[in-house]
Amino acid sequence: MTTTASTLTYGPLQFPHRAGLTLWQFTRAQRLGLIPGPDVTGDRWSAAVFDDAVARINAIRQAVGTMPDVGATRAEERLAERFDIPVHPGTAAELARRGHLPAAGDHKGHPLYCGLTLEKFNDRRKVQRASAAGTLHIRDAAAQVLGIRASDFDHLVRAGFLTHADTARSGWNRHDVVLLYRRADLDRVARSRRIDWEAARATPKGHRSPLAALPTQQQATGR
Predict the structure, then answer these.
(1) Phi, psi of 210, deg, nearest 5
(2) Quick check: 134 and 182 in contact, CB under 8 A?
(3) How close are the terminal C-alpha atoms of the chain, in Å?
(4) How far apart are CA 14 and CA 182, in angstroms?
(5) DSSP letters spanning 147-195
(6) Could you tell me if 199 and 155 are in contact, meaning their C-beta atoms sit under 8 angstroms apart?
(7) CA triple 124-98-141, angle to 5 deg
(8) How far apart are CA 139 and CA 149, in angstroms?
């Protein structure tokens, strides 16, 4: 910050510090249009803009809320605490997919969900539905949901009936990536009439899968 009154300006860290805002509150206030962008060369704010924001600081604090933007785990913890219900991993992404929980940025490639929306979220049923639909399963668990062998499941993936919805690091080896499949996608495939589920589920271990005859995704697309 400069020291002469005529040229007093504030930088992106000085502005929120002097105004009594956290950095996330300051960023959200800008996103909501409550504080304008820099009006001085060099990405700085003039004293006039700063003084105007300070005069409205209580209204700004109320508008930006009390919860910063958070990752999926914290968002799901918040929803579980708010409604006192189980909230499975994958729920935040499912709510976002359904247009109920917007992403407000990212951190190291992972989405950050809008804390203001989470703070005001009051629809228990939407959370329950998203939790059921968005539950994530590793390959073997996903195969069990469908009532088939893991090798049969691999044929469904190869044929393009399923694709993973997310990934995670293995609990055994952090270098290994584990593919995760969404419950709603599994339920959708389970309703497909293109698959002989009775035959697939009746095939014993060690026998060729009837799903092996499914064309690969590239072949199926080319037809």
Answers:
(1) -65, -20
(2) yes
(3) 66
(4) 44
(5) TS-HHHHHHHHHTTS---SEEEE-SS-TTSEEEEEEHHHHHHHHT-TTS
(6) no
(7) 85
(8) 10
With DSSP H G I counted as helix, E B as strand and the rest as coil, what are the percentages for the chain, rounded to 5? 50, 15, 35
Task: Say how far apart CA 15 and CA 40 lie, in whole Å.
Answer: 13
- Largest interatomic CA distance in the chain: 84
DSSP tag of 8: -
Residue 191 identity (one-letter amino acid): R
- For residue range 71-93, what is the model confidence (pLDDT) as tens digits? 999 999 999 999 999 999 999 99
pLDDT of residue 59: 98
Q: What is the mean pLDDT of the chain?
A: 91
Q: Are 96 and 102 in contact (CB under 8 A)?
A: yes
Which residue is it, tokens 């962008």?
A: 37
Residue partners of 213: CB distance under 8 A and separation at least 6: none
The secondary structure of residue 4, as a DSSP letter, is: S
